[in-house]
Predict the 3D structure of the following.
Amino acid sequence: MRPPYELVGARPDPAFEISVDGRPVPVVPGQSVGAALHAAGVRSWRSTRFGGRPRGLFCGIGVCFDCLVTVNDVPALRACVTEARPGDRVRTSAADSGPEVSGR
Amino acid sequence: MTRVYDLAVIGAGPAGVAGALEASLAGLDVVVIDAAPRPGGQYHRHLPDSFHALRPGALHHGLERFMRQWEALRSRAEILLGHRVWAVERTGGDAAGGTAGATVTVRCLAGDREERPRAVRARALLIATGAHDRPLPFPGWDLPGVLTAGGAQALLKGSLVVAGRRVVVSGTGPFLLPVAAGLARAGADVRGVYEAGGRFGLARHPLLAAGKAAEAAGYAAVLARHRVPYRGRHAVVAAHGEDTLTHVTVARLDADWRPVATRTVECDTLACGYGFVPQLELPVQLGCATRRDADGTPVVAVDAGRRTSVPGVYAAGETTGVGGAELAEAEGRLAGRTVAADRGLRVPPLPALARRVDRLAAFARALHEAYPVRPGWRDWLRDDTLVCRCEEVPLSAVREARRLGATDARSVKLLARPGMGWCQGRMCGYAVACLAGEDPAAPRRPIAQPVRLGDLAGLEHPLRKDDRDDP
Ligand SMILES: Cc1cc2nc3c(=O)[nH]c(=O)nc-3n(C[C@H](O)[C@H](O)[C@H](O)COP(=O)(O)OP(=O)(O)OC[C@H]3O[C@@H](n4cnc5c(N)ncnc54)[C@H](O)[C@@H]3O)c2cc1C
Ligand code: FES
Protein backbone atom coordinates (compact mmCIF):
# COMPACT_ATOMS: atom_id res chain seq x y z
CA MET A 1 0.00 0.00 0.00
CA ARG A 2 1.21 3.49 -0.77
CA PRO A 3 1.96 5.76 2.21
CA PRO A 4 -1.08 8.07 2.13
CA TYR A 5 -3.35 5.04 2.02
CA GLU A 6 -1.55 3.61 5.06
CA LEU A 7 -1.79 6.93 6.86
CA VAL A 8 -5.60 6.95 6.83
CA GLY A 9 -6.09 3.18 6.61
CA ALA A 10 -7.92 3.41 3.30
CA ARG A 11 -9.13 0.38 1.34
CA PRO A 12 -10.77 2.03 -1.60
CA ASP A 13 -13.34 0.45 -3.86
CA PRO A 14 -11.79 -1.02 -7.02
CA ALA A 15 -10.43 1.56 -9.43
CA PHE A 16 -12.09 2.23 -12.78
CA GLU A 17 -10.78 3.83 -15.94
CA ILE A 18 -11.61 6.97 -17.80
CA SER A 19 -10.25 7.83 -21.20
CA VAL A 20 -8.26 11.01 -21.60
CA ASP A 21 -7.66 11.91 -25.24
CA GLY A 22 -8.05 8.23 -25.93
CA ARG A 23 -5.60 7.02 -23.34
CA PRO A 24 -6.70 5.22 -20.17
CA VAL A 25 -6.27 6.87 -16.76
CA PRO A 26 -7.14 4.99 -13.55
CA VAL A 27 -9.49 6.57 -11.02
CA VAL A 28 -10.19 5.68 -7.40
CA PRO A 29 -13.97 6.08 -7.08
CA GLY A 30 -14.76 9.52 -5.71
CA GLN A 31 -11.71 11.26 -7.15
CA SER A 32 -12.05 14.27 -9.39
CA VAL A 33 -10.91 14.11 -13.00
CA GLY A 34 -8.10 16.53 -12.10
CA ALA A 35 -6.92 14.50 -9.09
CA ALA A 36 -6.87 11.31 -11.18
CA LEU A 37 -4.86 13.00 -13.94
CA HIS A 38 -2.40 14.50 -11.47
CA ALA A 39 -2.03 11.16 -9.68
CA ALA A 40 -1.32 9.47 -13.03
CA GLY A 41 1.57 11.88 -13.57
CA VAL A 42 -0.27 14.03 -16.08
CA ARG A 43 0.59 17.55 -15.03
CA SER A 44 -0.82 19.64 -17.84
CA TRP A 45 -3.76 19.27 -20.15
CA ARG A 46 -4.57 22.67 -21.48
CA SER A 47 -2.75 25.23 -23.64
CA THR A 48 -3.38 28.89 -23.08
CA ARG A 49 -5.04 30.96 -25.79
CA PHE A 50 -2.22 33.41 -26.51
CA GLY A 51 1.07 31.92 -25.43
CA GLY A 52 0.08 28.27 -25.89
CA ARG A 53 1.45 27.61 -22.41
CA PRO A 54 0.70 24.29 -20.69
CA ARG A 55 -1.63 24.37 -17.69
CA GLY A 56 -3.04 21.84 -15.24
CA LEU A 57 -4.04 22.09 -11.59
CA PHE A 58 -3.24 25.28 -9.74
CA CYS A 59 -5.76 26.18 -7.01
CA GLY A 60 -7.26 22.70 -6.71
CA ILE A 61 -10.59 24.05 -5.41
CA GLY A 62 -12.40 25.43 -8.44
CA VAL A 63 -11.45 29.10 -8.37
CA CYS A 64 -8.60 29.55 -10.89
CA PHE A 65 -10.13 27.82 -13.97
CA ASP A 66 -6.71 26.68 -15.17
CA CYS A 67 -7.78 23.03 -15.27
CA LEU A 68 -10.63 23.19 -17.81
CA VAL A 69 -11.50 20.02 -19.73
CA THR A 70 -14.30 18.67 -21.92
CA VAL A 71 -16.03 15.62 -20.45
CA ASN A 72 -18.40 13.61 -22.65
CA ASP A 73 -18.70 16.63 -24.92
CA VAL A 74 -19.62 19.02 -22.08
CA PRO A 75 -17.04 21.79 -22.48
CA ALA A 76 -15.28 24.05 -19.96
CA LEU A 77 -15.61 21.89 -16.87
CA ARG A 78 -13.16 22.39 -14.02
CA ALA A 79 -11.30 19.09 -13.76
CA CYS A 80 -10.49 19.67 -10.08
CA VAL A 81 -14.15 19.76 -9.00
CA THR A 82 -15.67 17.37 -11.54
CA GLU A 83 -15.98 13.90 -10.03
CA ALA A 84 -14.91 11.23 -12.51
CA ARG A 85 -17.45 8.57 -13.51
CA PRO A 86 -16.72 5.19 -15.09
CA GLY A 87 -16.45 5.46 -18.84
CA ASP A 88 -15.97 9.23 -18.93
CA ARG A 89 -14.38 10.46 -22.13
CA VAL A 90 -12.21 13.45 -21.30
CA ARG A 91 -10.92 15.71 -24.02
CA THR A 92 -8.24 18.28 -23.32
CA SER A 93 -7.35 21.40 -25.22
CA ALA A 94 -3.75 20.20 -25.24
CA ALA A 95 -5.09 17.52 -27.59
CA ASP A 96 -6.89 20.06 -29.79
CA SER A 97 -3.81 22.14 -30.26
CA GLY A 98 -1.48 19.43 -31.45
CA PRO A 99 0.85 17.84 -28.93
CA GLU A 100 -0.63 15.12 -26.76
CA VAL A 101 -1.26 15.44 -23.05
CA SER A 102 2.02 16.18 -21.38
CA GLY A 103 3.27 13.99 -18.57
CA ARG A 104 5.90 14.77 -16.04
CA MET B 1 -40.72 28.34 -5.50
CA THR B 2 -43.16 28.35 -2.62
CA ARG B 3 -41.20 27.32 0.46
CA VAL B 4 -39.54 30.15 2.33
CA TYR B 5 -36.96 29.00 4.88
CA ASP B 6 -36.24 30.90 8.06
CA LEU B 7 -32.54 30.83 7.29
CA ALA B 8 -30.38 29.96 4.29
CA VAL B 9 -26.73 29.23 5.05
CA ILE B 10 -24.25 29.44 2.18
CA GLY B 11 -21.16 27.34 2.91
CA ALA B 12 -20.91 23.96 4.68
CA GLY B 13 -17.47 24.54 6.18
CA PRO B 14 -16.82 24.86 9.92
CA ALA B 15 -18.59 28.24 10.13
CA GLY B 16 -21.67 27.38 8.08
CA VAL B 17 -22.33 24.00 9.66
CA ALA B 18 -21.92 25.29 13.21
CA GLY B 19 -24.24 28.22 12.46
CA ALA B 20 -26.86 26.09 10.76
CA LEU B 21 -26.84 23.59 13.61
CA GLU B 22 -27.29 26.24 16.32
CA ALA B 23 -30.10 27.86 14.37
CA SER B 24 -31.93 24.61 13.72
CA LEU B 25 -31.51 23.47 17.34
CA ALA B 26 -33.12 26.75 18.36
CA GLY B 27 -36.09 25.86 16.16
CA LEU B 28 -35.51 27.60 12.83
CA ASP B 29 -36.28 26.01 9.47
CA VAL B 30 -32.82 26.00 7.86
CA VAL B 31 -31.39 25.21 4.42
CA VAL B 32 -27.64 24.72 3.91
CA ILE B 33 -26.17 25.27 0.44
CA ASP B 34 -22.67 24.35 -0.74
CA ALA B 35 -21.06 23.94 -4.14
CA ALA B 36 -19.03 20.94 -3.02
CA PRO B 37 -20.33 17.36 -3.15
CA ARG B 38 -19.39 16.79 0.51
CA PRO B 39 -19.55 19.04 3.58
CA GLY B 40 -16.44 20.24 5.38
CA GLY B 41 -15.34 23.35 3.53
CA GLN B 42 -11.58 23.67 3.23
CA TYR B 43 -10.42 22.58 6.68
CA HIS B 44 -12.71 19.56 7.01
CA ARG B 45 -12.35 18.45 3.41
CA HIS B 46 -12.35 14.65 3.62
CA LEU B 47 -12.31 11.50 1.55
CA PRO B 48 -15.43 10.13 -0.06
CA ASP B 49 -16.91 6.99 1.54
CA SER B 50 -15.59 4.94 -1.38
CA PHE B 51 -12.10 5.15 0.21
CA HIS B 52 -13.28 3.31 3.35
CA ALA B 53 -10.68 5.14 5.42
CA LEU B 54 -10.31 3.66 8.91
CA ARG B 55 -8.58 6.81 10.19
CA PRO B 56 -9.97 9.66 8.09
CA GLY B 57 -9.04 12.09 10.86
CA ALA B 58 -5.34 11.25 10.54
CA LEU B 59 -4.98 14.12 8.09
CA HIS B 60 -6.36 16.76 10.45
CA HIS B 61 -7.70 17.37 13.93
CA GLY B 62 -11.35 17.56 14.75
CA LEU B 63 -12.89 15.76 11.79
CA GLU B 64 -14.90 13.36 13.99
CA ARG B 65 -16.38 16.28 15.89
CA PHE B 66 -17.30 18.05 12.68
CA MET B 67 -18.94 14.91 11.29
CA ARG B 68 -21.03 14.57 14.45
CA GLN B 69 -22.24 18.15 13.97
CA TRP B 70 -23.00 17.35 10.35
CA GLU B 71 -25.02 14.23 11.23
CA ALA B 72 -27.00 16.20 13.80
CA LEU B 73 -27.63 18.91 11.23
CA ARG B 74 -28.66 16.51 8.47
CA SER B 75 -31.64 15.23 10.39
CA ARG B 76 -32.86 18.74 11.15
CA ALA B 77 -32.16 20.90 8.10
CA GLU B 78 -32.54 20.80 4.35
CA ILE B 79 -29.16 20.15 2.69
CA LEU B 80 -28.31 21.23 -0.86
CA LEU B 81 -24.83 20.02 -1.80
CA GLY B 82 -23.50 20.44 -5.33
CA HIS B 83 -25.25 23.82 -5.54
CA ARG B 84 -23.10 26.76 -6.69
CA VAL B 85 -24.52 30.12 -5.68
CA TRP B 86 -23.92 32.74 -8.35
CA ALA B 87 -26.18 35.53 -7.08
CA VAL B 88 -28.18 36.64 -4.06
CA GLU B 89 -30.88 39.31 -3.97
CA ARG B 90 -32.90 40.81 -1.19
CA THR B 91 -36.50 41.78 -1.91
CA GLY B 92 -39.52 43.01 0.00
CA GLY B 93 -39.42 44.57 3.41
CA ASP B 94 -41.87 47.30 4.30
CA ALA B 95 -41.84 50.78 2.83
CA ALA B 96 -40.07 52.22 5.85
CA GLY B 97 -37.08 50.03 5.09
CA GLY B 98 -38.01 47.57 7.81
CA THR B 99 -37.29 43.89 7.53
CA ALA B 100 -40.75 42.52 8.32
CA GLY B 101 -41.51 40.87 4.98
CA ALA B 102 -38.03 40.90 3.49
CA THR B 103 -36.71 37.74 1.88
CA VAL B 104 -33.44 36.76 0.28
CA THR B 105 -33.39 34.84 -2.98
CA VAL B 106 -30.34 32.62 -3.44
CA ARG B 107 -29.68 31.71 -7.08
CA CYS B 108 -27.88 28.42 -7.56
CA LEU B 109 -26.73 26.11 -10.29
CA ALA B 110 -27.18 22.49 -9.24
CA GLY B 111 -25.17 19.51 -10.44
CA ASP B 112 -21.55 19.34 -11.55
CA ARG B 113 -21.88 18.85 -15.32
CA GLU B 114 -25.14 19.89 -16.90
CA GLU B 115 -26.19 22.38 -14.29
CA ARG B 116 -29.80 23.27 -13.53
CA PRO B 117 -30.80 26.66 -12.17
CA ARG B 118 -32.54 26.65 -8.83
CA ALA B 119 -33.66 29.47 -6.57
CA VAL B 120 -34.01 29.21 -2.80
CA ARG B 121 -35.83 31.76 -0.65
CA ALA B 122 -35.29 32.55 3.00
CA ARG B 123 -36.06 35.25 5.54
CA ALA B 124 -32.45 35.43 6.75
CA LEU B 125 -29.09 34.61 5.20
CA LEU B 126 -25.82 33.45 6.79
CA ILE B 127 -22.83 33.87 4.50
CA ALA B 128 -20.01 31.42 5.33
CA THR B 129 -18.25 31.10 1.98
CA GLY B 130 -14.70 31.01 3.36
CA ALA B 131 -11.60 32.01 1.44
CA HIS B 132 -9.26 30.92 -1.32
CA ASP B 133 -5.47 30.96 -1.47
CA ARG B 134 -3.65 34.22 -2.10
CA PRO B 135 -0.83 33.58 -4.56
CA LEU B 136 1.88 36.05 -5.49
CA PRO B 137 3.20 36.04 -9.06
CA PHE B 138 6.83 35.21 -9.84
CA PRO B 139 8.60 34.00 -12.99
CA GLY B 140 7.34 30.52 -13.83
CA TRP B 141 4.41 30.49 -11.38
CA ASP B 142 2.17 29.29 -14.20
CA LEU B 143 4.25 26.17 -14.90
CA PRO B 144 2.43 22.87 -14.35
CA GLY B 145 3.66 21.48 -11.04
CA VAL B 146 3.29 24.82 -9.27
CA LEU B 147 0.22 24.59 -7.04
CA THR B 148 -1.27 26.77 -4.36
CA ALA B 149 -0.55 25.52 -0.85
CA GLY B 150 -4.27 24.99 -0.31
CA GLY B 151 -4.52 23.14 -3.62
CA ALA B 152 -1.85 20.66 -2.53
CA GLN B 153 -3.68 20.21 0.76
CA ALA B 154 -7.02 19.74 -1.01
CA LEU B 155 -5.58 17.01 -3.26
CA LEU B 156 -4.41 15.11 -0.22
CA LYS B 157 -7.45 15.59 2.02
CA GLY B 158 -10.05 15.14 -0.70
CA SER B 159 -8.52 12.59 -3.06
CA LEU B 160 -5.56 11.07 -1.19
CA VAL B 161 -3.27 12.26 -3.97
CA VAL B 162 0.20 13.44 -2.90
CA ALA B 163 0.88 16.54 -4.96
CA GLY B 164 4.37 15.39 -6.03
CA ARG B 165 7.38 13.24 -5.27
CA ARG B 166 9.86 16.02 -4.51
CA VAL B 167 8.02 19.01 -3.18
CA VAL B 168 9.05 22.49 -2.08
CA VAL B 169 6.71 24.52 0.15
CA SER B 170 6.99 28.29 0.07
CA GLY B 171 5.07 31.44 0.95
CA THR B 172 4.14 33.00 4.24
CA GLY B 173 1.93 32.25 7.21
CA PRO B 174 1.23 29.45 9.66
CA PHE B 175 -0.63 27.43 7.00
CA LEU B 176 2.67 26.34 5.42
CA LEU B 177 3.33 24.10 8.42
CA PRO B 178 0.32 21.75 8.14
CA VAL B 179 0.78 21.63 4.37
CA ALA B 180 4.43 20.60 4.63
CA ALA B 181 3.79 18.19 7.52
CA GLY B 182 0.88 16.56 5.67
CA LEU B 183 2.92 16.08 2.50
CA ALA B 184 5.86 14.63 4.43
CA ARG B 185 3.65 12.17 6.33
CA ALA B 186 1.96 11.14 3.11
CA GLY B 187 5.28 10.12 1.61
CA ALA B 188 6.47 13.15 -0.33
CA ASP B 189 10.13 14.10 -0.18
CA VAL B 190 9.67 17.67 1.09
CA ARG B 191 12.80 19.48 -0.02
CA GLY B 192 12.27 22.49 2.20
CA VAL B 193 9.80 24.94 3.72
CA TYR B 194 10.69 28.51 2.77
CA GLU B 195 8.86 31.08 4.86
CA ALA B 196 9.31 34.58 3.45
CA GLY B 197 8.54 36.22 6.79
CA GLY B 198 9.63 34.93 10.19
CA ARG B 199 13.31 35.54 10.52
CA PHE B 200 13.77 33.19 13.43
CA GLY B 201 12.79 29.83 12.02
CA LEU B 202 10.67 27.25 13.78
CA ALA B 203 12.09 27.65 17.28
CA ARG B 204 10.57 31.12 17.57
CA HIS B 205 7.53 30.55 15.36
CA PRO B 206 4.72 32.97 16.23
CA LEU B 207 2.36 30.01 16.71
CA LEU B 208 4.33 29.28 19.89
CA ALA B 209 3.81 32.75 21.27
CA ALA B 210 0.14 32.62 20.41
CA GLY B 211 -0.68 29.73 22.70
CA LYS B 212 -0.60 27.10 19.98
CA ALA B 213 2.58 25.48 21.25
CA ALA B 214 1.29 21.92 21.04
CA GLU B 215 0.12 22.34 17.47
CA ALA B 216 3.36 24.02 16.37
CA ALA B 217 5.47 21.42 18.18
CA GLY B 218 3.54 18.68 16.42
CA TYR B 219 4.34 20.10 12.99
CA ALA B 220 7.95 20.76 13.99
CA ALA B 221 8.32 17.15 15.13
CA VAL B 222 6.97 15.83 11.83
CA LEU B 223 9.29 18.10 9.85
CA ALA B 224 12.26 17.05 12.00
CA ARG B 225 11.41 13.36 11.70
CA HIS B 226 11.36 13.66 7.92
CA ARG B 227 14.46 15.91 7.90
CA VAL B 228 12.62 18.75 6.22
CA PRO B 229 14.60 21.99 6.42
CA TYR B 230 12.62 25.08 7.48
CA ARG B 231 14.07 28.47 6.53
CA GLY B 232 12.68 31.84 7.57
CA ARG B 233 13.31 34.90 5.37
CA HIS B 234 13.57 32.62 2.36
CA ALA B 235 11.19 32.20 -0.57
CA VAL B 236 10.89 30.62 -3.98
CA VAL B 237 11.34 33.58 -6.34
CA ALA B 238 11.32 31.69 -9.67
CA ALA B 239 10.13 28.33 -11.01
CA HIS B 240 11.81 26.64 -13.96
CA GLY B 241 11.16 23.88 -16.45
CA GLU B 242 10.28 23.36 -20.08
CA ASP B 243 6.63 22.36 -19.81
CA THR B 244 6.60 21.10 -16.25
CA LEU B 245 8.44 22.14 -13.10
CA THR B 246 11.98 20.78 -12.69
CA HIS B 247 13.59 23.21 -10.24
CA VAL B 248 13.06 26.45 -8.35
CA THR B 249 15.20 29.40 -7.37
CA VAL B 250 15.16 29.91 -3.62
CA ALA B 251 16.31 33.30 -2.38
CA ARG B 252 17.36 34.54 1.01
CA LEU B 253 15.41 37.75 1.51
CA ASP B 254 16.06 41.02 3.26
CA ALA B 255 13.48 42.47 5.65
CA ASP B 256 11.50 43.86 2.71
CA TRP B 257 11.64 40.53 0.86
CA ARG B 258 14.18 41.63 -1.74
CA PRO B 259 16.40 38.71 -2.74
CA VAL B 260 19.95 38.93 -1.40
CA ALA B 261 21.32 35.51 -2.41
CA THR B 262 19.89 32.67 -4.46
CA ARG B 263 20.35 28.97 -5.04
CA THR B 264 18.60 26.22 -6.95
CA VAL B 265 16.50 23.40 -5.51
CA GLU B 266 15.37 20.52 -7.70
CA CYS B 267 11.74 19.49 -7.31
CA ASP B 268 8.76 18.38 -9.38
CA THR B 269 6.19 20.26 -7.32
CA LEU B 270 5.93 23.60 -5.56
CA ALA B 271 3.15 24.33 -3.06
CA CYS B 272 3.01 28.06 -2.60
CA GLY B 273 0.74 30.46 -0.69
CA TYR B 274 0.82 33.93 0.80
CA GLY B 275 -2.29 33.82 2.95
CA PHE B 276 -5.95 33.78 1.96
CA VAL B 277 -8.50 35.99 0.23
CA PRO B 278 -12.01 35.94 1.76
CA GLN B 279 -14.76 35.28 -0.84
CA LEU B 280 -16.87 38.41 -0.61
CA GLU B 281 -18.79 38.57 -3.87
CA LEU B 282 -22.14 37.56 -2.32
CA PRO B 283 -22.08 40.01 0.61
CA VAL B 284 -20.89 42.74 -1.76
CA GLN B 285 -23.80 41.98 -4.13
CA LEU B 286 -26.16 42.54 -1.20
CA GLY B 287 -24.49 45.81 -0.26
CA CYS B 288 -22.97 44.60 3.02
CA ALA B 289 -20.38 47.02 4.38
CA THR B 290 -16.78 45.80 4.38
CA ARG B 291 -13.78 46.77 6.47
CA ARG B 292 -10.05 46.17 6.26
CA ASP B 293 -8.60 43.34 8.28
CA ALA B 294 -5.31 43.69 10.19
CA ASP B 295 -3.36 42.97 6.97
CA GLY B 296 -5.43 45.32 4.77
CA THR B 297 -7.60 42.57 3.25
CA PRO B 298 -11.24 43.52 2.74
CA VAL B 299 -13.61 41.46 4.90
CA VAL B 300 -17.32 41.72 5.76
CA ALA B 301 -17.97 44.08 8.67
CA VAL B 302 -20.09 42.48 11.39
CA ASP B 303 -21.24 43.42 14.88
CA ALA B 304 -20.64 41.28 17.98
CA GLY B 305 -23.56 39.03 16.99
CA ARG B 306 -22.24 38.56 13.41
CA ARG B 307 -24.89 40.86 11.85
CA THR B 308 -23.75 42.58 8.65
CA SER B 309 -24.86 46.11 7.79
CA VAL B 310 -27.79 44.67 5.78
CA PRO B 311 -30.76 43.62 7.93
CA GLY B 312 -31.34 39.88 7.94
CA VAL B 313 -27.88 39.10 6.54
CA TYR B 314 -25.20 37.55 8.79
CA ALA B 315 -21.63 36.43 8.13
CA ALA B 316 -19.12 34.14 9.85
CA GLY B 317 -15.82 32.39 9.24
CA GLU B 318 -13.10 33.55 6.88
CA THR B 319 -15.47 36.00 5.12
CA THR B 320 -15.30 38.17 8.24
CA GLY B 321 -11.52 37.83 8.64
CA VAL B 322 -9.06 35.00 8.09
CA GLY B 323 -8.53 33.21 11.38
CA GLY B 324 -8.68 29.44 10.86
CA ALA B 325 -11.20 26.69 11.43
CA GLU B 326 -11.59 26.99 15.20
CA LEU B 327 -12.48 30.66 15.03
CA ALA B 328 -14.75 30.01 12.04
CA GLU B 329 -16.70 27.41 13.99
CA ALA B 330 -17.09 29.64 17.05
CA GLU B 331 -18.23 32.57 14.90
CA GLY B 332 -20.69 30.30 13.10
CA ARG B 333 -22.24 29.19 16.38
CA LEU B 334 -22.56 32.78 17.50
CA ALA B 335 -24.18 33.75 14.21
CA GLY B 336 -26.68 30.89 14.34
CA ARG B 337 -27.76 31.92 17.83
CA THR B 338 -28.08 35.57 16.84
CA VAL B 339 -30.30 34.72 13.87
CA ALA B 340 -32.57 32.65 16.10
CA ALA B 341 -32.79 35.41 18.69
CA ASP B 342 -33.46 38.05 16.02
CA ARG B 343 -36.29 35.89 14.68
CA GLY B 344 -37.94 35.99 18.08
CA LEU B 345 -36.81 32.66 19.54
CA ARG B 346 -35.57 32.43 23.10
CA VAL B 347 -31.83 31.86 22.97
CA PRO B 348 -29.96 32.44 26.21
CA PRO B 349 -26.77 34.44 25.72
CA LEU B 350 -23.54 32.44 25.98
CA PRO B 351 -20.89 34.82 27.30
CA ALA B 352 -18.25 32.04 27.20
CA LEU B 353 -18.78 31.67 23.43
CA ALA B 354 -18.42 35.41 22.85
CA ARG B 355 -15.22 35.41 24.92
CA ARG B 356 -13.88 32.48 22.91
CA VAL B 357 -14.50 34.34 19.65
CA ASP B 358 -12.71 37.40 21.03
CA ARG B 359 -9.74 35.37 22.20
CA LEU B 360 -9.34 33.48 18.91
CA ALA B 361 -9.81 36.69 16.91
CA ALA B 362 -7.04 38.37 18.92
CA PHE B 363 -4.83 35.39 18.11
CA ALA B 364 -5.67 35.73 14.41
CA ARG B 365 -4.79 39.43 14.51
CA ALA B 366 -1.42 38.62 16.10
CA LEU B 367 -0.68 36.13 13.34
CA HIS B 368 -1.62 38.65 10.64
CA GLU B 369 0.77 41.10 12.21
CA ALA B 370 3.49 38.43 12.35
CA TYR B 371 3.10 37.54 8.67
CA PRO B 372 2.66 40.68 6.56
CA VAL B 373 3.36 40.48 2.82
CA ARG B 374 6.35 42.76 2.22
CA PRO B 375 6.66 44.90 -0.94
CA GLY B 376 9.98 43.40 -2.07
CA TRP B 377 8.18 40.56 -3.92
CA ARG B 378 7.76 42.99 -6.83
CA ASP B 379 11.50 42.62 -7.40
CA TRP B 380 10.98 38.92 -8.14
CA LEU B 381 9.06 39.77 -11.33
CA ARG B 382 10.57 40.27 -14.77
CA ASP B 383 9.02 42.19 -17.66
CA ASP B 384 7.61 39.01 -19.17
CA THR B 385 6.33 37.49 -15.90
CA LEU B 386 2.60 36.88 -16.21
CA VAL B 387 0.74 38.84 -13.57
CA CYS B 388 -2.67 37.57 -14.74
CA ARG B 389 -2.65 33.87 -15.64
CA CYS B 390 -6.01 33.83 -17.43
CA GLU B 391 -5.54 36.73 -19.83
CA GLU B 392 -1.76 36.19 -19.90
CA VAL B 393 -0.94 39.77 -18.99
CA PRO B 394 2.77 40.30 -18.36
CA LEU B 395 4.22 42.79 -15.91
CA SER B 396 5.31 45.00 -18.84
CA ALA B 397 1.65 45.51 -19.86
CA VAL B 398 0.70 46.51 -16.34
CA ARG B 399 3.62 48.99 -16.31
CA GLU B 400 2.53 50.33 -19.71
CA ALA B 401 -0.99 50.88 -18.36
CA ARG B 402 0.50 52.83 -15.47
CA ARG B 403 2.51 54.94 -17.94
CA LEU B 404 -0.70 55.66 -19.85
CA GLY B 405 -2.09 57.16 -16.67
CA ALA B 406 -3.77 54.28 -14.87
CA THR B 407 -3.42 55.10 -11.21
CA ASP B 408 -5.67 52.43 -9.69
CA ALA B 409 -6.38 48.73 -10.14
CA ARG B 410 -9.63 49.43 -11.96
CA SER B 411 -8.04 51.50 -14.74
CA VAL B 412 -5.08 49.11 -15.01
CA LYS B 413 -7.67 46.39 -15.57
CA LEU B 414 -9.43 48.39 -18.28
CA LEU B 415 -6.21 49.08 -20.15
CA ALA B 416 -4.27 45.84 -19.75
CA ARG B 417 -7.05 43.33 -18.94
CA PRO B 418 -5.57 41.64 -15.87
CA GLY B 419 -8.43 40.06 -13.92
CA MET B 420 -10.79 39.96 -16.91
CA GLY B 421 -10.51 36.21 -17.53
CA TRP B 422 -12.18 33.10 -16.17
CA CYS B 423 -11.05 33.46 -12.57
CA GLN B 424 -12.43 37.02 -12.50
CA GLY B 425 -9.30 38.32 -10.82
CA ARG B 426 -9.36 35.91 -7.89
CA MET B 427 -5.79 34.76 -8.52
CA CYS B 428 -4.19 38.07 -9.55
CA GLY B 429 -6.41 40.66 -7.83
CA TYR B 430 -4.14 41.11 -4.84
CA ALA B 431 -0.98 41.48 -6.95
CA VAL B 432 -2.61 43.82 -9.46
CA ALA B 433 -3.84 46.10 -6.68
CA CYS B 434 -0.36 46.19 -5.12
CA LEU B 435 1.27 46.87 -8.50
CA ALA B 436 -1.25 49.66 -9.12
CA GLY B 437 -0.22 51.17 -5.82
CA GLU B 438 -3.39 50.65 -3.80
CA ASP B 439 -4.82 48.32 -1.17
CA PRO B 440 -6.89 45.49 -2.63
CA ALA B 441 -10.59 46.38 -2.80
CA ALA B 442 -13.59 44.17 -2.10
CA PRO B 443 -14.57 42.35 -5.31
CA ARG B 444 -17.51 43.66 -7.35
CA ARG B 445 -18.73 40.66 -9.29
CA PRO B 446 -22.39 40.70 -10.33
CA ILE B 447 -21.97 36.97 -11.03
CA ALA B 448 -20.26 35.36 -8.06
CA GLN B 449 -19.29 32.24 -9.98
CA PRO B 450 -18.48 32.04 -13.67
CA VAL B 451 -21.55 30.69 -15.43
CA ARG B 452 -21.61 29.00 -18.81
CA LEU B 453 -23.98 30.71 -21.24
CA GLY B 454 -25.85 27.44 -21.85
CA ASP B 455 -26.66 27.26 -18.16
CA LEU B 456 -28.18 30.73 -18.25
CA ALA B 457 -30.69 29.82 -20.93
CA GLY B 458 -33.20 28.53 -18.40
CA LEU B 459 -32.92 31.33 -15.88
CA GLU B 460 -35.91 33.29 -14.75
CA HIS B 461 -34.12 36.64 -14.99
CA PRO B 462 -31.81 36.65 -18.00
CA LEU B 463 -28.76 38.73 -17.29
CA ARG B 464 -28.50 42.22 -18.53
CA LYS B 465 -25.64 42.68 -20.93
CA ASP B 466 -23.69 44.80 -18.48
CA ASP B 467 -23.85 42.01 -15.92
CA ARG B 468 -21.45 39.83 -17.85
CA ASP B 469 -18.25 41.49 -16.91
CA ASP B 470 -17.11 43.60 -14.08
CA PRO B 471 -15.53 46.50 -15.93
C1 LIG C 1 -7.67 25.31 -0.48
C2 LIG C 1 -7.64 25.59 1.00
C3 LIG C 1 -7.21 24.58 1.90
C4 LIG C 1 -7.17 24.83 3.26
N1 LIG C 1 -6.74 23.83 4.09
C5 LIG C 1 -6.60 24.09 5.41
C6 LIG C 1 -6.03 23.12 6.28
O1 LIG C 1 -5.70 22.02 5.85
N2 LIG C 1 -5.84 23.45 7.58
C7 LIG C 1 -6.20 24.68 8.06
O2 LIG C 1 -6.02 24.94 9.25
N3 LIG C 1 -6.77 25.59 7.28
C8 LIG C 1 -6.95 25.35 5.96
N4 LIG C 1 -7.46 26.31 5.14
C9 LIG C 1 -7.93 27.58 5.73
C10 LIG C 1 -9.47 27.58 5.83
O3 LIG C 1 -9.87 28.76 5.20
C11 LIG C 1 -10.00 27.50 7.26
O4 LIG C 1 -9.30 26.55 8.00
C12 LIG C 1 -11.48 27.12 7.39
O5 LIG C 1 -11.80 26.05 6.52
C13 LIG C 1 -12.40 28.26 7.16
O6 LIG C 1 -13.72 27.88 7.46
P1 LIG C 1 -14.99 28.62 6.84
O7 LIG C 1 -16.18 27.90 7.36
O8 LIG C 1 -14.89 30.07 7.06
O9 LIG C 1 -14.88 28.42 5.26
P2 LIG C 1 -14.57 27.16 4.34
O10 LIG C 1 -14.08 26.02 5.11
O11 LIG C 1 -13.73 27.67 3.24
O12 LIG C 1 -16.00 26.77 3.75
C14 LIG C 1 -16.66 27.57 2.81
C15 LIG C 1 -17.61 26.72 2.02
O13 LIG C 1 -18.41 27.57 1.22
C16 LIG C 1 -18.59 27.00 -0.03
N5 LIG C 1 -18.83 28.08 -1.00
C17 LIG C 1 -18.06 29.18 -1.22
N6 LIG C 1 -18.61 29.96 -2.17
C18 LIG C 1 -19.74 29.32 -2.56
C19 LIG C 1 -20.74 29.63 -3.52
N7 LIG C 1 -20.70 30.76 -4.26
N8 LIG C 1 -21.76 28.75 -3.69
C20 LIG C 1 -21.82 27.61 -2.92
N9 LIG C 1 -20.91 27.28 -1.99
C21 LIG C 1 -19.88 28.13 -1.82
C22 LIG C 1 -17.31 26.25 -0.31
O14 LIG C 1 -17.55 25.19 -1.23
C23 LIG C 1 -16.90 25.77 1.07
O15 LIG C 1 -17.34 24.45 1.30
C24 LIG C 1 -7.54 26.09 3.76
C25 LIG C 1 -7.97 27.08 2.87
C26 LIG C 1 -8.01 26.85 1.51
C27 LIG C 1 -8.47 27.94 0.59
S1 FES D 1 -7.27 23.91 -10.39
FE1 FES D 1 -8.11 25.87 -10.13
S2 FES D 1 -10.11 25.60 -10.93
FE2 FES D 1 -9.30 23.62 -11.04
